[in-house]
Structure formats: structure tokens, C-alpha cells
User: Fold this.
Amino acid sequence: MAKRSLLSSHREEASSGVSSVPSANKIPTLTVMIPTLNEAGNLPYVLNTIPNWVDEILIVDGRSQDDTLRIAKVLRPDIRVVHEYRPGKGAAMKTGFEAAKGDFIIALDADGSMDGAEIGKFRDALLAGADYVKGTRFGPGGGSADITRFRRFGDGGICFLIWLLFGARYTDATYGYIGVKAESVDKIGIDSDGFEVETLIGIRAQRAGLRTAEVPCFESSRIHGTSNLHALRDGLRIFKVIVSERLRKRPHVLG
Assistant:
């Protein structure tokens, strides 16, 4: 079945007189989206940190060859699973955003580096009026047990470029712990498949005029397995995204 974009869904709801935007009297629902690829060793920890008030946990799996999906279902029988067969984190996030049912969507990595107990910070910032919320390791109250000096220096340079070219004052450009209102997803648009998607989303949120906020987070080291992140390769892809976005004359909106 062909997927519909959230924007298309909202247009249909508007034409029928039904709004997808939470009313003042309705408590917004929340989806936690977790891209996975062979994360069976990490999922027990990750799922255990997610608060029980979360309405939906959505796994976006990229052809895992281990017990990732079996373990997910054993630990959380109510978990939803969608499949993304294209490689790359960006591809998984695009699929997840399209499939999520919540009014608020929080993206969380499956490697154990992000603490699900911090989801409440993102929810509170969205409830306070932000459309897009970034986790920051480098702002006040944040931290990391995993960052290298090279990557920290690179992230600082990326933040400077984003401020210089787009006016966005982020303190962390490459951390993937983010939250967004479902109604804002199509104002951002995702068409990058790799790790550079995290930087792309931040830039497009700024260009689309979304209300943005940062919340402090602590990044732990990956618990099991090996990261697919490659600092130099992914840094070059991020630089390419920045240049490409700067050359765009108008903000990118899917529809």
C-alpha cells in the first residue's frame, strides 16, 4: 500500500472538517520512534528506559539479521514494527515519521546511548510551544561519554556554519535525539538517507520558521555492537547538505 505523507493526511482532514492538530483540551499523544539494525543486545536496556506514559513505540527496522524484532515483541507486545529496506538512518527516519500515529514524535537511537528517561524533556518543550526540539550534549546541563575531540571540534564548526548561513543558534548539530510535532514534519521534509539527516532537519526547521528549542541530554557509549558512524565520511556528507541547503532559494516543503 502506498504511503501518504502527513501533509496529505492533514489536507484530507481539513477538507472533511476534522483537524489533526491537538485542541487545547486534548492531551497530545506521543510516539517514540526507534530505528533498528541488529540491535538485539541493546533493545532490552533501551525499551526499559522508556516511560510507561508513552502512547506508541514504533520500531523502524532495516533488515535486522539477529533477534531484534523477536526481542522487541517479547519485551513490548504492543510495539509497532515497520520495515525500511533502503540503507541509512535518514531513510529509516522518513519512514518512521510517515508511520507514526502520535501528535508528538520523539526519535531515539537503539544503541543505548540515549536515555529514554529524558523523553519527558522533549514532551515538555513541545507542550510549551516548540515545534521542533533538539537534544544537546554541549549546551548547559548536557554531556557525553562517547564524543571524541575530533568529532566535538567538527560539531562546533558545523554549528558555526549553520548560524552563519541560516541564523540558527544550535549548540549541537549532529545529535539525533529530537522531537517534533507531527503537523510540522512535512514543513521540514526529509530526503537524505544517511547520518546527515540530523543536521538537515535542524536547518530546514529553521528555514521553515518553526519554533525550535534545545534540551540538555547526556550521551552514553554504545552498549553492544559497533557504530556505523564514520566521522570523516559523514562529516563530508553533512558539509554537502549545508552547501545544498544554502543554495536552495526557498524552504523545502513536501506536498
Q: What stands out?
A: The first strand starts at residue 30 and ends at 36.
